[in-house]
Each structure stands twice: as structure tokens, then as C-alpha cells.
Here is the input.
Amino acid sequence: MEGGHKMSDRTHSKITRRKFTESVGIASVAAALPRLAVAQRIKSTADRKNALDHIVIIMFENRSFDNVLGRLYGPGEVESFEGVIGKSLTNPIPEWAENSASRKLVEYGVAKNMNTPKPDPGEEYPHINTDLFGVVDPKNRFVPLKKMVPPYNAPNPGQQPTMDGFISDYISAFTAEIGRQPTYEEYAQIMTGYSPTQLPVTSSLARGFATFDHWFCEVPSQTFTNRSFFHAATASGYLINFPPADAFPLHNTAETIFERLEAKGLTWRVYCDAPSPASMTGIIHASRLHRRFATNFFTVADFMEDAKNGRLPNYAFIEPNLWHGHNDMHPPVSALLHGLPWDPPSSLLGGEALLAKVYDAVRTSSASNGSNHLNTLLLVAFDEAGGTYDHVAPPAAPPPDAAAPPGQMGFTFDRSGQRVPAIAISAWIPERRVVTEEYRHTSLIRTLRERWSLGPPLTARDAVAANIAPILSLDAPRPPDQWPDVTPQVVPPFNTALLPPNLPLSVLGKGIFFAILAFEKSLGAKVPEISRDTGISGAQAQEIIRKMSLEIFPGLRYSG
Here is the structure.
């Protein structure tokens, strides 16, 4: 102590515990004291130079910033925050909409339930073009992706995003899928987002640490291409998940940050939440990572054990369950199987519960050697916005390789995808921090490269991405008892038994299914000969995928 006698550690501990008890209340002492003990046990290791010894990413699906965090702060609560409160945000109803009741606009509002928007909006490149620029070729209206024609609703050169095509695209995509135009109530839901009370875990963590309000995904399209950019800063010219089915597993040959880590003698693992039979990260980068499927891909249950025992790798990437009963926050309906009970009561509620579990594992990690809450950064990310509304126009971005020819659908990869939620959680980050500078998915690659001297940029995209390290700005770490407590809402049980056997796979379902078949076959595996035109049922496909996938991802086997 300054200005007085130094008390013994035992005396200091008693006084600290007494003050802590008085501050949190008797009812909370049982739960809080272990965290206080954690902080005291490893306080000698508190050095900001070690704050990024371990980086953990949990990546959810298909939500924009406005959709998840747009109402996090109101005007004046923090110095700067690009949210939705206090703004007049609208989208026009197109003149060809049948159910407008003379309305001209839809105002942005609050989602009425935890399954909005339903059905899932279009997320492929042509759909996002319409969302961002309001462009919809009449030939591409009311038709599925496979029937769309060039230039796929692309903007004119130099055209700036207007962010006013979300209603138009939702009506068009809904009609193509359902076979009728939606009612006003059905299409107005695309212009809604969630409040902090609806997403208590995500909102508490965002307010309790750092929120990025200008973090953009890399591509104005869907899952595979954006997840590829996250770890490779490119997608080898591919823009949509499917077709062709073998695009990512066989032909996405770009170097990954996983290989850079390994070359430096550093460790990495991908953890998938059960009952995932396969890792999307593995499938997307199969041509580079297939030799690591048996050694580097594990379950979230393994992550919990690794965090508890101080065994986290230098880099950990967590995938929610993106399969049957998914908890990835993806909007309904069915990521794979239309008409089947693929969706849980709420993927948002399931995702919140998973996030709370992962956060608590990091918060309570207390190993004196290895990983712990003082040297671990947890970053919450979303792969893409998936067609959900956001009011901030995405910026331009350099092509990964300026010399490469245009990619799939003629896209030159010279502009970003939408703004997505991103939250950084660390003992070295102050609460209620809003990061207003531009960040993007390849900021993760930039941060890893600089933290461990992993060499030059993978592409021109991560060369310009901002480093996350400066966000960890505190001179002394926050002890875990000062981190926010999070309590997810109750997740209703999901009935996994109801699988009608005769309903066919959706387009995305076929993409994933045939991608796995193509990859297995490329490795010399004996796979069933199934035509893409075959009306294989959801139950049949699920069983085939599970059996094959667990052969190549043995670490994803789980008990239960």
C-alpha cells in the first residue's frame, strides 16, 4: 500500500473478500468468490504484453449490426455510436408489390418474436446487390437463384449503396420460395431488429466490453465466401456456396492463416458444437486442411475442458451447430431441409446460450500456466448479414489480387459486404467502449500476423485491415468479478425425432450435401453415386452426411 505499512497477503485477502461480499450481497457470494480467488491466484501474470497469447473466435450466422446491436445505446449514452435509435430509417415498397394497402414505405421497428425474419431472406450475391443498391432486374424478380441472369442485379460502375432494396428483395425472394407474394406484415419483418432485452447475453457483453460499430464482412454474398475470407483473405474467386458443389472443398486453394500459425510452431484448433458431424471451416478449406481433420477439429465440450485446464491453443475458432437444430443465430427456415423441423424454437436463443457458456469458460479460466482470463481475447463475430437490414453503406475494398480475372458471376471483389456485429472481450478492455474505426473480417488475420510475426499479408485485403490489438488499452486488467454476469433466456427443447422421410433437400442443402460427397470422393473414399437431380430426402441425406463426415472428422464424435 502507498503511504502506509504493507499488509500481509492473508490480511489483504480477508479485507478484499469482506468488501467484495458487502458490494455484491450475500446471495451472490457463493458464485462470486471463486472468481475473486481466480484473480488473486494469477494476478502475478497480469501483463498486457501477454493479453493476446490466446485468441478465441466464436462466429455466428447471418445477422446485420442493426439487427442485433442497433439499439445497444441511445443518443448521448456514449460519445459515438452508429445505431438506429433516434433515426428515421425506412425502405420503399416497390410499385409491383401486391399487398401494400397504399403504403409507400416501411419504417424500421422492433422484431415481434425470436424467429424473425421468417422465412430466411436471400443471401446470395444477386440478393445482396438488390438490398444495397435497390437494383432488381425484372428478369430476376420472383425467380430462384439458378434462374437469375447476368449481371445479377449488380450496380453500375461507381454507383453508391443506397441501402433501400431490402423490401424489394424480400418480396421477390419470398415469392420465389413460397409461390405467392407476402402480406405487408410478412415483408415488413425484414425492417426489424432486436432490443437489448431480447438478446440479454449479446447486449450485456457488448456494453461490458468493446463493440465495433463499423465492422464489415468482406463480400456482399453468403456464408462460404465470407468464412473463407476470414481465414484466407480470399475465396479463390468463388462467390456463392453452390453451385458448383465442389468449388470450395476442392478448388479453394488459398493459403490460410492456420498454416502460417503452424509454420511458426503455434497451435490452433477448430471447435464445433454438437451434434455437428462436420466443420464448415474444414469443408471450405479442405484442399489445404484435410490432413488436419483428425488432429485439429474437436467439439465445444473439448473447448470447455481446454479452457478450464489452461490448454487453449494460440488460436481457437468456435463454430456453433450449423446443422439440425442449429444454434448459430441464423434466421429460419431450415438451413438445409425445407419443411422439416430443422429449426429449433429459436436459433437466436440457442446462440445466446452457447455464447454465455463460452464466455463463462473464458471468464473463469484460472490456470497459472497456459491460457487464462488475463491472456485470452474472446471475439464474437458474424460471418455475414444474410439479407437482414442495416442502414450503413459498405465501403469499397481492394481486390485480394488485382491481377486476377473477375470471379464467379463476374464479381471483381472490389467492395465489402454489409456491416455485421463484432464484440471484443478481454480483461484489458474497458466497459462501454465503442470502436468507430473501420474493421473487417481480415482484421483477424492482420492481428494474428502482427501478434506472432507470421509474415507478409496473405492478400491485399488483410494488408489494409485494422489490427485489433490497440483495442486492449487498459494499463491494468479488470478482474473477473468486474466483468458482466450473463444469463440467457430459457431455450425451449427441440424435438429431434420428427424427421419426415420424403421431403427433398433445399438448394443450400444440396450445396452442402454434394460438397461433402465431392470432397470425400477426392480423397478416394467410396461414396454413393447420387445425381444432383435425385430427390433425396432430408432424412436420407442427413444419415449419409453424418456417417461420412464423422469418418473424416473423428474428433467431432460426441456422447449423447
The first strand starts at residue 54 and ends at 60. The first helix runs from residue 9 to 24.
